[in-house]
Amino acid sequence: MNAVPAQPEELSQNQAQGYTVARSFWQKEAVLAYLFMVPGALILLIFMAYPFFYGLYISMTDRFVGIPGSHFIWFENYRYLLDDPVFRKVVRNTFVYSFVTVPFKLVLGLGLALVLNQQFRFSRFFRAGLLLPWIVPTAISTLAFLMLYNGTLSPISWAFRHLGLMNGNINFLGDPVNAIISICVANIWRGVPFFGISILAGLQAVPDDLHEAAALDGAGAWRRFWAVTWPVIRNIVLISTLFSIIWTFADFQLIYVLTKGGPANSTHVFGTYSYQTLGVTDLGTAASISLYMFPFLAVFAIILLFYVRRED
Amino acid sequence: MAMVGSNRMQNRWIQLYIPLIFFLLFLIFPFYWMLIVSLKPDADLLNTKLNPFLLYHVTIGHYTYLFTNTNFVRYVWNTMVVTVGSTVLSLFCSILIGYALGRFRFRGGGFLGSAIFLAYLVPPTLLFIPLSQVVTKLDLYNKYWALILTYPTFLIPFASWLLMGYFRTIARDLEDAAMVDGASRLQAMRTIVLPLAMPGVLSAGIFCFTLGWNEFLYALVFMGSGNMKTVPVGVVTDLIRADVYFWGSLMAAGILGSVPVAIAYSFFVDNYISGLTAGATKG
Amino acid sequence: MSDERAQRLIAEAKTLRYSRRTVLKRAAALGLSAPAIAGVLGATGHAAAAQSGTPAVNLGGSLNILQGTYFVPAAQDFFTKQAKDWGKQNGVDVTTDYINWPDLQPRTTSAVQAGSGPDIVEMWPGIPYLFADKLVDMTDLAEKWGQANGGYYDWVTKTASVNGQWKTMPHGTSSIAVIYRTDLFKAAGYDTFPETWEDFFKAGKALKAAGHPLGQALGQSLGDPPSFCYPYMWSYGAMEVEADGKTVAFNKPTFVDGMNTFIQAWKDAYDGTGLGWDDTGNNSAYLAGQISATLNGSSIYLSANDPTSKDSNPELAKNTNCVPLPKGPTGQFCNLGSRSMGLLSYSKNQDAAKAFLGWFFSIDNYKAWIEAYKGYIIPTGPTLATEPVYTSDPKLKAFIEVAKYGRNQGYAGPSNLKSAQAAANYVIVNTFANAVQNGDAKSAIEQGARQLERYYGR
After folding, report:
1. Residue C270 pairs with which residues in a beta bridge?
2. 3-state class of B41 per DSSP?
3. Which of A69, A131, A179, C354 stands the most exposed, by the fewest C-beta atoms within 10 Å?
4. Which residues of chain C are within 8 Å of residue A262 when distances are taken between CB atoms?
5. What is the Cα Rg of chain C in Å?
6. How many CA atoms lie within 13 A of B113 on its CB side?
């Protein structure tokens, strides 16, 4: 990446043009900037902003897909959800799901990064291999977990039985607490590589000589980490955390495959409940459920971005 | 971290081998399981007396079933087209956005940057119904473009952010010098900045590719018909037959759908990480 | 002599699902005469292809049919081929898609909202009501189909019509019975299957002690859990609503008693992991020999009994029998509702779609279809219920017999938006799950009643 490309020959032929470019520099820069935003903005406007605002509008109607006519009812759907006992469980589960898994993913990801940052044989293959959980399509890897948690076929249950630790099969997905734990483990498994690789990227920016200097000063590993490493990786840790919170909060597929929110709604989250509500064509309520996530996510985003910016 | 002292080997175990073994067990075990199941005859799978961790008989039947009874090859092709297409499109948009936000000072830049980031907060479960209307209006239903154009909505925000950080790490002087030498800004960008930014672009590309490769909901709803399914959708719809899972073939598809990608990644994983390094620490 | 060989080839072709080409090859190998070959082709459903070349009517265009995945894989391949053949003869480009059952509903919702997608969609019981306004009317064809079948069962009319108006074509449904292990029950001292729920639980207690509990899914799944919960509720005197379709009639003292019985039974007789099962849970638990009985469609037995199936297990099939659900104090029931095929009004090729449905819903063709389905799907009226596919194997008789105990979700009202909401949100199922988890029948039922009031009162 530090290879300086050769100056192309033709550049010198455009001296005159270059002069005008330089003269109208600031003006030109702003114009170019807006121009550069156009392709991405166009895609985001058509395929993101429009559906989003349309969804926002739908959430304030009592629209059912197959039933003609609908009324604008302001925040009635949102109010209706507030005294929906299932929805209250959904909010609780989503918070538990996010705030249990994200710290684990962070700590394990950090550990993974510290391990992979060392020099050892075949490290490249380990690095790619340990990315596997992130690469395999979730729809399929979750099925592998469904099997590991299966009431009949689970090899984990088999091992426990044969070690004489228990008689029956472990009730991974049928007990409310076990179900949440099982789902969290699958989520953590899937999420660790992203943290690991991101933090590893941050670690590579830590200058070795600083570490050595600190070591010579007699600082222990723990102090060296906080004094030398942490300031460098702090931003990427915060940003990764933010992304992970957003993904986990809005997660749908993993829980949908494993429990569909059961047993008795004990693992339902926003995404799965919204999808379930869509199943009965109740567009308005489904949209409101999804949109309830938005303020929470916005608050997380603002807090974390504030911390990231404060440093700059 | 540097190892010093006589108990170097012991340190090596504590700091490297033991944690590495732990991570291997935790992260790779499900793949071991997938591999075992994909090679195990169904009768053995249901036989709870056998040790499920071992293979007593080996069959490649699940793999042949995958290739003969489902359109797996076609699904892989579809996924490639859609993933590569949306990755290229996202990179194109993100390079421009990242460059504009990372390099130019202009009014509204901060606002636009935040707005693009906010796009990340919109959950797909909300979007997919209104989006299906957009897809239909543009006559994209069940065509590759349906996904090539919709995937960037969740790829552009991260890729732009990463590239913005990356462009900031590249010294301004280089392109200024080129422009003084007579290059237009676009030329300077193409010939000077972009080649320097390749590690960052590669990182963003890998990131986009992975997310596109994994996507399920949009693929199911906008392109899930006939031969147009992607790997996750095709495999799940063809191999979960009502109340029966075709476990072996499902896991075979999981192995075939991830291990080649991981092997490909292993060749530029270090590039990927270094690209992420520059982008992320200056973001 | 030649006849005998032809008969053998027909049987062979049917069990092994030979393609037309394979049939011809085998016929040549056996040295059959031309008329005999034609006979074989006719009997194995390849006759249509034999006369192809001149399309009957050229309707043109394309037609996409979306269904849930079939419970009997061979039937799915059969339908695909059937639809393709019909398309060839009529000059229509027919494509068939199958999707996981739980995804069918959201997929349909998004197609209808977008105004494009599959032309013909299969719908769960009660769902036609939700899309009534977006479906092409089927009154003529449905009435003809009703007459041909000796009328519709009550549960068909209540789940596949919209207040008596036919918006979709009902094509029958998976039927539910208790599938149990005769060898294990015999070993526990039961030569005949218990008649009431309480005796069934008693047997289960003995069986669980012997290491083979009963199995029942109580997770959030739309197939197996409701198949148990609704009939159990009905047989203990409760239902979702009264006939007025408004007054919730869920919290009944008899039901609280019944639930208490079930809570105890769940501990004594059932496999506790059932709370986490989806629709596949009991299939694998039964096929793995873990459980001694479960409620299901005939697919478990069929796949164990079929030498070509991946879960083939002749020994298990031999030791399996199927009986209607047990009785409770207020009767014997089965939760049934007809699935149906709906033609969506956004379809651009409605003539072809109607022609296809008209052809599919002809007795001859439908018979071939239920035969491919090996009797897993039960028909919409009594006429076909005596077909050999339902009666020849005594173990399958229960599945057709329960048609007379059938009740729709939302009973005593019709299946409609409200009952669909209650079902989609698993109100009844979760009442059971809550009860066995917390051991408190009364509060679980009260909570369920409040949820029902929310949907029925809105």
Report:
1. C214
2. coil
3. A69
4. 219-221, 275-276, 426, 430, 433
5. 23
6. 22
Contacts of A230 (CB under 8 A, 6+ apart): none
pLDDT at C46: 61
CATH of C177-335+415-457, one of 3.10.180.10, 3.40.190.10, 3.50.50.60, 3.40.1000.70: 3.40.190.10
Average pLDDT score, chain B: 88
Q: Chain centroid to CA C189: how far?
A: 32
Q: Smallest Cβ distance to C64: which of B47, B220, B225?
A: B225
> Which amino acid type is present at position B82?
V
Give tens-digit pLDDT for A181-215.
999 999 999 999 999 988 988 888 888 787 788 87
Residue A294 CB neighbour total at 10 angstroms: 17
How large a percentage of chain B has pLDDT more than 90? 53
Q: Is the confidence at residue C142, as pLDDT, over 90?
A: yes
Q: Do domains C62-174+338-397 and C177-335+415-457 have the same CATH topology?
A: yes
Q: Where are the alpha helices (DSSP H) in chain B?
A: 8-12, 18-39, 42-46, 61-69, 72-103, 109-118, 124-137, 144-150, 152-169, 172-180, 185-188, 194-196, 198-214, 217-223, 231-239, 247-256, 259-281
Sign of CA dihedral B4, B8, B13, B16: positive
Domain boundaries defined on chain B: 8-59, 70-281
The full set of domain ranges for chain C reads 2-50, 62-174+338-397, 177-335+415-457
pLDDT of A14 above 60: no
Residue A137 pLDDT > 80: yes
Catalogue the E-assigned strands of C245-370: 293-296, 320-323, 334-335, 339-343
CA–CA min distance B238, chain A (Å):
13
Instruction: Tell which CATH architecture fits domain B70-281.
Output: Orthogonal Bundle (1.10)
- Is A27's pLDDT higher than 80? no
Which secondary-structure segment (H or E) carries C67? strand C62-68
Shortest CA gap A54–chain C (Å): 13
**Is A279–C109 a contact, with Cβ atoms under 8 angstroms apart?**
yes
Which CATH architecture is the domain C62-174+338-397 placed in?
Answer: 3-Layer(aba) Sandwich (3.40)
Q: Hey, is C178 helix, strand or coil?
A: strand
What distances in angstroms separate CA C136 from CA A283, B221, C140, C444, one per listed residue?
A: 22, 23, 11, 41
Mean predicted confidence (pLDDT) in C31-50? 59
Highest mean pLDDT among A131-135, A250-254, C198-202: C198-202
pLDDT of B124 over the 90 cut: no
Helix (H, G, I), strand (E, B) or coil at C225: helix
Please state, as a whole number, how many other Cβ atoms lie within 10 Å of the Cβ of residue C359.
16
Residues of chain C neighbouring A253 (CB-CB closer than 8 A): none
Taking alpha carbons only, the member of C263, C261, C268, C290 closest to residue C197 is C261
Query: Chains A and C: how many Cβ contacts under 8 Å?
Result: 133
What is the pLDDT, as a whole number, of residue A67? 81
Using 50, 70 and 90 to split pLDDT, how confident is the model at C21?
A: low
Higher pLDDT: C174 or B190? It is: C174
**What does the pLDDT read at residue A6?**
40
* Cβ of residue A264 closer than 8 Å to a chain C Cβ: yes
Using the Cβ of A145 and the Cβ atoms of chain C, whether some distance falls under 8 Å is answered with no
Confidence of residue C186 (pLDDT cuts 50, 70, 90): very high
Q: How far apart are CA C379 and CA C68, in angstroms?
A: 18
CA distance A31 to A37: 10
Nearest Cα of chain B lies from the Cα of C274 at a distance, in angstroms, of 15
Looking at residue C20, what is its pLDDT? 66
Quote the pLDDT of residue B94: 95
Using a CB-CB distance cutoff of 8 angstroms, which residues of chain C are in contact with residue A67? 130, 132-133, 417
Residue C73 CA from chain centroid, whole number:
13
